[in-house]
Amino acid sequence: MKNTLKLRFALRGATLFFVSVVILGSFLYVTMSLFLQDSLKDSLRVTAQHLVSVLDVDNGILTPPDSLDEGSSSRAHPEGFTERLLDPTGRVLLQNGPLTAELPDPHVFRGPFFSQSTSGSWIAYTEGVTDAGRLLAILQVAQSTRSVSAVLDQLFWTILLSLVIFVPLSAITGYFMATGLLSPIDAMTRTAKRFSTENLAARLELPPSNDELGRLAGTFNSMLERIEQSFKNYREFVSNASHEFKTPLAILHTILNVTRARPRTLTEYAQALDDMSQAVLRLETLVNHLLTLAKIEGEPELNGTSVNLGELCLRIGETFRPLTQAQGLELVLSVEPGLEVLGDETLLSSMVVNLLHNAVKFTEKGKISLRVYRRESWAYVEVQDTGIGISSEDQSRIFERFFQGETSREGSGLGLAIVESLVKLHRGTIRVDSILGQGSIFTAGLPLRVA
Fold first, then answer.
1. 254 in a domain, yes or no?
2. What's the alpha-carbon Rg for the chain, to the nearest Å?
């Protein structure tokens, strides 16, 4: 039989029931045995004391009766009851019952005592008959333990029968209970088998009760939704990446075919090489951006060091000054000193470079401002331009991979997606405020390093 969770649940339940019944039965058996033996001893003691009380003792002289039952004829003794009367020397005066030959010799009597056969088949009680402190006779009463054994045997077989009947029944009951309890897990298994790249919409039906299995089913559905969204993002990424690669490759292919169609002048060959160089540069930029994204996504946690954000932005800003001057743009740097964050300096540099590069690309005239300032426990990097701006419709999608708005110029469509990924990797936030035709403000917030 297949070793399923339901079978293990049933077997463990049956084992637990078996052990519980054995422990409880053993306790009950021992308790009942002690109780019955104590009851038997009490009965023998009471019987002996009654017999002693009815014996004829006058002035220190015991007159043995003809029978120990005299004066108590109404008393009914159980089967196996034995009684006998002895003088102080141990000589038998009277005896009655089947166990007379097995009763112990009291020898020197020092007081009442119980005795039991080595096989446990009987229990005897010995009592002295005295007058004024002088021992006149010795009375012994004994009872077979057959009735006690019969009760204990019946109890034993009852416990054993309950084990034979109820242990398998508990296993069967546990199996069906497990079937009901684990049905959501079976449903998860069936759903997981249906779930594939062709069928991403499979979901579990949530049970009405909000118990552990219900919460597990809800978590499972959430996981499936994330997987579905990941597949959608993956497909969109592959589609967009293929399109981005296809454009420069098509340009290269066209240039090569046209150039080889007939002999060209040196000027035409030089122009073709320039065009091919631009296409290769675009491919190189795209590949570098993809590698950067792969590096970011391959680091779920950042093992950063202390980075002076102000000094970093000043260095990067100064490297952009020749570029902005060449385009006739004013570059304004405003940095609050002493702002340190915990992060990767190379990745933070890439974040600032992409923000400045984006501002330069979309600003034809005016100025670009790079500002670093503190607000409470956060450091902010703000890049403001007077460029073409972003429409309100595009602002909600500006950080999506490969997204290029209507006013976008030639590029990979990955720069701002990289910026957002880098900010999130550093547990920060980023937002954009823009008015179409007036410019944009990108603000990245990073938590300050706690000293």
1. yes
2. 50
User: Cα separation of 188 and 112, whole Å?
Assistant: 75
CB 18 within 8 A of CB 160: no
Q: Quick check: is 234 in a domain?
A: yes
Those residues with Cβ within 8 angstroms of residue 410's Cβ, 6 or more apart along the chain or in another chain: 282
Residue that finishes a domain, picked among 129, 151, 173:
151
Residue that is last in its domain, among 235, 260, 295 = 295
Instruction: Output the pLDDT for position 109.
Output: 66
| Percentage of the chain lying above the pLDDT 90 cut | 21
Handedness of CA 250, 401, 293, 238 (dihedral sign): negative
Pair 37, 136 in one domain: yes
The single residue listed with the structure tokens 């293929």 is 242
Consecutive H or E run containing 387 = none
Rounded (10°) CA dihedral 79, 85, 91, 97: -10
81 DSSP β-pair partners: 143
Alpha carbon separation from 23 to 26, 173, 259 (Å, rounded): 5, 21, 96
pLDDT digits over 384-417, tens only?
999 888 888 887 778 776 666 655 555 556 778 8
pLDDT, residue 332, reads 93
How many domains does the chain contain in total? 3
- 82 and 44 in a single domain? The answer is yes
